[in-house]
Amino acid sequence: MQDLLYFCQQLINGLTIGSTYALIAIGYTMVYGIIGMINFAHGEIYMIGAYTALIAITGLATLGIAWVPLVLLIALICAVIVSSSTGWAVERVAYRPVRGRHRLIPLISAIGMSIFLQNYVHLAQGSRNIGFPALIEGGFRFGGEDSFQMSVSWIQITIFVTTFVCMTALSLFISRSRIGRACRAVSQDLGMANLLGIDTNRIISATFVIGAALAAVAGLLLGMYYGSVDPLFGFIAGLKAFTAAVLGGIGSIPGAMLGGLILGIAEAMTSGYLSGEYKDVISFSLLILILLFKPTGLLGKPEVEKI
Amino acid sequence: MLLLEDVHTHYGKIEALHGVSLEVKQGEIVSLIGANGAGKTTLLMTVCGNPQATSGRVLLEGRDITRLPTADIMRSGISIVPEGRRVFSGLTVEENLFMGGFFNSRTDNQKGIEHVYELFPRLKEREHQRAGTMSGGEQQMLAIGRALMSRPRMMILDEPSLGLAPLVIKQIFEIIGQLREEGITVFLVEQNANQALQLADRGYVLETGRIRLHDTGSNLLANPDVQAAYLGG
Description:
The complex is a heterodimer of chains A (307) and B (233). Chain A has one domain: ABC transporter involved in vitamin B12 uptake, BtuC. Chain A is 73% helix and 4% strand. Chain A has a two-stranded antiparallel ribbon. Chain B has ten helices and ten strands. At the A-B interface, α6 and α7 of A face α2, α3 and α6 of B.
């Protein structure tokens, strides 16, 4: 019984962290699906989302607004707006002017963008980590008094529910809406979509904006979960989310979701049964194994074309 | 309808079209024939603005479209069935058609789709199937259907018979003939010169980026040079 509770605890921790990886991973996978390139500034967009949420929360506290749902909603909206604008700007500044050039050029300009954003936040907010208020506290405990107690906190539940809602909304948007259909068409054949009169630049911008908005949601959630932010906040999370996207099959949205969850669970199990220090070793080993034996990722499909 | 005046097009530093002039009049079917590498596809893509002409003018219904971006040109009453069909293989047949009518209202699209299914009953059967899983002929029908969705006044077809069985080719050419009856002007590029010229009111012969011959379809069919070079006779 106790073993089972311990296992469930690791599973819940894994699902919590994994679902946020998935939220960030979608940004990588959508951009890759459309322009075939990795947005290396995506981790910074997520970090900016977390900072914006923190600034909004602090601001609201000074104004004396303390009703938690309202504070969260406003913080979320602010984070989404600022991150989306940043995502849009990254595409305009670092990708669009060099599109169609050698693949290394946008890669370098995106890394430059990432360094710029990181240092901008360093200057504007200082390089020390700042405490993130725990707006959602408490939770449930299961298990006997003198044995292992499994705990599920409200913040974990919030993360899980929010992620689930975002994923469902995104899936519906991509599969049903007119713009979602255009996103899929552009990712399959950008030139052809252009020949149907579709302004492919706007669709590309839309994918950067959607990915950035989801990263902002993750920024707010993880800021509250970890309890602090710093300008390097986006680096490791971005790397993990990128791993998740590749694991699931880069370019595939369900793949990013699955990859995020698997990665999160693998890390939590490693922390729970081996040692927390090994969790990065395990996640990147997992990536290497997948790339060795199934290079397209779990749900990625090799390109099949009928001639 | 469509007028090209002394159009030059470059790929990088290489000039692919050396001053092409041609005209497609309202309601006509005009065929452009030529060997591989003559610049046929380049010519069509220049009309679509990708790549743009480096000099000369392209006029669509009297409007200069030479410098317009591709997306704007393709929203001006012209549509294309490109070389190799290029259906969106991961999208269903219905979704592909919706992409063709991206700028239409919902009711126009509903009407458009019904019309396409009347022309190609086979597509109706495959409505919810992914386009990539269909045969080449079915994909070609879908590409034509998709091009019809925007209710174009002019349609460009690039090698619609390529890689298809003779029976399917016959069907595709019948449909092209039908387009004219619907009032759509057709500009057809083909290697299958015999069928393309039989169907066409007029034809142009393109050789290494220059128009070599221009005549009615039947005169070109009877022309000994054309027979020797393109009709295997």
